[in-house]
Amino acid sequence: MRLSAIMSQNCLLAPIQEGPSEYLVKDVKLAVLGTTSVGKSAMIVRYLTKRFIGDYEPNTGNLYSRLVHVEGDQIFLQIQDTPGCTEVQEDIAQMFDSLSRCLKWADGFILVYSITDYHSYQAIRPLYQHIRKIRPDSKSPVLIVGNKGDLSHSRQVAANDGLQLANELGSVFLEISASDNYQGVCDVFQHLCKEVTKLHNGEKRRSSIIPRPKSPNMQDLKRRFKQALSYKV
């Protein structure tokens, strides 16, 4: 399925440590995954600062935190930028080991590939499968993103390929350009925030349901009372 969003900031966001948020309505933790140079960091910085700064790919696994508003809800959003691998065949197993802790931490996941790099597209399926392996009982939403849509002249992955893969995995697909389309980047993060908050709200409703105690059986109570009297006599 396709997705057809809203912040402004004038300075480059610096990674900050996770902090307390008692006064906030909701907490959302997202992880952005993919191979090297697909634009993961550029997407995050673009969303949180509304600025594009080129192929920003420090590959340091930074944690970004910021207050955002999604459909009237105030959210303390944390985004984990994960390091990628350079060659799918050689490095993806090692990348899985380093990602396991992050996968247990996050509430939702963004899997990013570049439309100009077929190898990055090939990494999406094993990444998705690894998420479900680490979180077998989780319903955490996963969104698949084809980035660098502005480089269609160098395209190696058709949009239909991304859509078909998302349908097979039961995920949502969106093709964007972090450099040319700020609204598309917003759609990615805000859609996932909404899905995570809906999931949390559903879990809270289920946990708030307390089973009603059974009504006492009056005949049984009378019988026990008569027995107690007979014992005293």
TrEMBL record:
Its EC number is 3.6.5.2. Keywords: GTP-binding, Hydrolase, Nucleotide-binding. Pfam families: Ras (PF00071). SUPFAM superfamilies: P-loop containing nucleoside triphosphate hydrolases (SSF52540). GO terms for molecular function: G protein activity; GTP binding. Coiled coil: none annotated. The keyword Mitochondrion does not apply. It catalyses: GTP + H2O = GDP + phosphate + H(+). CDD domains: RERG_RasL11_like. Belongs to the small GTPase superfamily. Ras family. This is small monomeric GTPase. It comes from Varanus komodoensis (Komodo dragon).
